[in-house]
Task: inverse folding
């Protein structure tokens, strides 16, 4: 099983600033990595796939990078609606997906 | 527009059974594998099971193997999750999902979720 580890568990950033979230895979997954955003009471929403490709209708302030085992989600100029939970997911072992444990982004 | 509508959630006693259904629309159902992903209250996401587009291949997380069965009826555009031997730790919202391209792809659509509560 590919284990995904996200850090930090909680990230405190001020509105308008930049947030950097990390995700590490227990083995190389190439760029088969996705990021999701989950708002309270809602299903997750796909933000990024292929490690760096924005999904449909995702604002340009969301960007992803990385390959192999180390990945980053960057949110520039944080808006109030961005302070929610983010998950990474590997699909290199499709369809046996595994998710990171999540990073909660909170407003400082 | 892609829609995934889960039904069948509810309260069940430990050791009991429940069947979730997911009615899909808005895409070529047989071209896509379908998965169930669950989320325990206040916790993260856990992939549970997947089934190939033609239903020939099924996959399970170790935590549910031998207790849950995934199936699909392509004539009804519906995927099912039969759950038996339910435990308290199976309490979660269960999401029906489809992947983005049908092969080596992330999930791009999620249903609204069905809450399953296992309690006496």
Result:
């Amino acid at each position: 099983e590919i284990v995904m580890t996200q850090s930090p568990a909680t990230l405190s950033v001020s509105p308008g600033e930049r947030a950097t979230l990390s995700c590490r895979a227990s083995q190389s997954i190439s760029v088969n990595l996705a990021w999701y955003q989950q708002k309270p009471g809602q299903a997750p929403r796909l933000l990024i796939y292929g490690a760096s490709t924005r999904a449909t209708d995702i604002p340009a302030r969301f960007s992803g990078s990385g390959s192999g085992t180390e990945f980053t989600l960057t949110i520039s100029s944080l808006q109030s609606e961005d302070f929610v939970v983010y998950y990474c997911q590997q699909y290199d072992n499709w369809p046996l997906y595994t998710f990171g444990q999540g990073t909660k982004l909170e407003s400082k | 527009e892609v829609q995934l509508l889960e039904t069948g959630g509810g309260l069940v006693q430990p050791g009991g059974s429940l069947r979730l259904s997911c009615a899909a629309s808005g895409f070529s159902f047989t071209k896509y594998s379908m998965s169930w992903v669950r989320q325990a209250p206040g916790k993260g996401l856990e992939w549970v099971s997947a089934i190939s587009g033609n239903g020939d291949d099924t996959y399970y997380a170790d935590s549910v193997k031998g207790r849950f069965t995934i199936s699909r009826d392509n004539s009804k555009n519906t995927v099912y999750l039969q759950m038996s031997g339910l435990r308290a730790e199976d309490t979660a919202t269960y999401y029906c999902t489809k992947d983005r391209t049908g092969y080596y792809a992330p999930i791009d659509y999620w249903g609204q979720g069905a809450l399953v509560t296992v309690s006496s």
Remarks:
- Chain A has no helices and eleven strands.
- Chain A touches chain B at residues 32, 34, 36, 43-46, 49, 55, 87, 89, 91-92, 94-102 (CB under 8 Å).
